[in-house]
Amino acid sequence: MPTAFPDDSVGLVTPQVARFSEPLPLACGRSLASYELVYETYGQLNSTASNAVLICHALSGHHHAAGFHSEADRKPGWWDSAIGPGKPIDTRRFFVVALNNLGGCNGSTGPGSTDPVTGKPFGATFPVLTVEDWVHSQARLADRLGIKQWAAVVGGSLGGMQALQWAISYPDRLRHCVAIASAPKLSAQNIAFNEVARQAILSDPEFHGGDFQAEGVIPKRGLMLARMVGHITYLSDDSMGEKFGRELKSDQLAYDFHSVAFQVESYLRYQGEEFSGRFDANTYLLMTKALDYFDPAAAHGDDLAKTLSGVTADFCIMSFTTDWRFSPARSREIVDALMAARKSVSYLEIDAPQGHDAFLIPIPRYLQAFARYMNRIAI
């Protein structure tokens, strides 16, 4: 490993592509005749294929969860604080698989991919996906990798929903489910935030009904606004106050509606600008709809305990005190349902000021508890 990388880094990693030619039926009633999933792996699969851990990403996540793509990279994968030698998901003990979900915009088949029927980008014609669809596609990837049962399926936020769905859809294919800062379904307020973000994209003149690629443009303003709205909900009031307060960009107020007066305005505009240059608008619409539609208890009369009656995995549920997007109360709903169903569950509520984004931040108590749970399941 090059000396430029920290000792606890997985070092250089190379994305891989799994191609599937068997049609994938989808919850919306359509199917994908063929598709590709981009993924990365860290660590070594043991001789019994019993040490594999699946990482499920959140809304804007992807397959690059740890390590570096080149020696020139300054920024590692999005969950590098949790994955690597000596970290909670210890790659000296686990074989870790992280993928870009179907419908994504980081290499897996999605709206920006070429439709083999038309020879043009799918764009608006790409089917709406659900969390359950993702889990079925991930199960096929596990088959391809020779993994009959995951040691654990782990995810935060939307990733935690996928971990929960894994335990429901494939109870014998995982031993542990780790769901962090997640929920059994979205609240009306959460769905409302997602709808505002979608409308920002849909109303952008450059969206062109989802076929903006064919026009050679991107709905940049809509994506910027969607990201700005989302980013506000990922942070707590305390963390925003601590980072920015009411600090001004300059001593002189411009007294107009176009200038950036406050530091928090500058921060949000930067986040929106950066996001609009790397994320696909149609993928954003798909991901938020998958969030909205996730409600596994709906098939069991809204009885979550009944929904979880068939799971066999042990559960680790974690939440953060200032997370108002996926509040601790939502995690406790999962815990209460598991207890009612007489399942094994550990729960930790971490006192942290960072809001929903806390699951991505190396908070010592969080990482310590995470590591202790993962140490229990390592073989």
TrEMBL record:
Signal peptide feature range: none
Keyword NADP among record annotations: no
GO molecular function, one term: homoserine O-acetyltransferase activity
Keywords, comma-separated and alphabetical: Acyltransferase, Amino-acid biosynthesis, Cytoplasm, Methionine biosynthesis, Transferase
Site (Important for acyl-CoA specificity): 325
Record field: catalytic activity: L-homoserine + succinyl-CoA = O-succinyl-L-homoserine + CoA
Residues annotated as domain AB hydrolase-1: 51-360
Record family assignment: Belongs to the AB hydrolase superfamily. MetX family.
Record's protein name: Homoserine O-succinyltransferase
Originating organism: Pseudomonas quercus
Gene: metXS
